[in-house]
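Hey,

The postdoc asked me to send both predictions to you directly instead of through the lab channel. I've kept everything plain text so nothing gets mangled by the mail client. Protein one:
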Amino acid sequence: MTDRSDNTSRYARQARHLLANAAKTSGEEVSTATGSKKVGLEKTGEMVWGAFILAIKAAGAKRGKHLKSTAAIKWGKDHGLIAGRDDVAAVNAARALHGRFYEVDMEYDEFLVAKDAVEVLVDKILIEVGL
């Protein structure tokens, strides 16, 4: 079994890796018969969502807690990692990006704003716990 510091750094490293990959894939344009369109947004949204959950899991691991993904957001709120209006808005943005994988109802500009908000929260969580 891995120890707490292994999980902490593994989750944090993977969160940063997902954000880096998301930055590379968001908004790739492909030509279509009717012009061009952005592709990969669903995949990018899932990467950002995953990075968000992994950041909370890293914080939990640092404090000796193994979190399941489904409980991570509540744990993050309960432990002060998600506090204030901007953080709550970023959580809602993360949920919207995750939901976008199943339902495409977000314009590209909205997608970028949501992605940026979640990235700021992920960085904040990792910095707050010294990762």
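Protein two:
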Amino acid sequence: MGLLVLQIIFDQSVERLTSNFRSGKEQSVLSIFLIFFFLLLSEFVVGNILLLFTASEIQKARNLGAGQPSALSAKTFEQILIEEIRAAGQILSGFLLFIFPGFNRLIHYFFVPFVVIFDEDYQIGKVDALKASLKVSLHHFWFLSTLLTLTSVIDWILGYLIKGDEDSIFKDPAHVGLAAAVALLLNLFFKLFYCFVYLNLKNKPQMEK
């Protein structure tokens, strides 16, 4: 229930800012910054909680992490945020240099939160999360670029079909609540999908040996 409320808050914030920007009421750099800020905040909070829940269920199903803390823990969440901030700094610096280096780092550091959760070497301090993510994604750049583009487009299309021109929660609370619930389910599905993509790519070199 708490996640649903957070999803509604983030959705309504982005919708309000986007609507004002399109109508010309608030067309400024600050407006654009706030739209991206709430989108990133939504992913950092709601997205990572869903990822932790998904990973925890995968661990239970596969009997992973025996003797280790569950993926669904405050410490793991904190570590994910720390490593994602590090990755975001590298990605931003890449975009400031040129577009392609930034996009390149965006792909290569996509698996950083998955490393924090699933990589036992990271959990005992033997590897760096950014380097481990780079190692997994290094030879799969175009595959991951295509995959992330496709899933993003699918997510956007499904989200638009469900939400449409979303109203204020005060005008149509049922529609807004349903849209937020479906958005959570879509996010959960994609997190599960990416977990299996990461685990398959991580184990691929070992399987080929």
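Summary for protein two, as requested: Residues 2-208 form one domain.

Thanks,
C.
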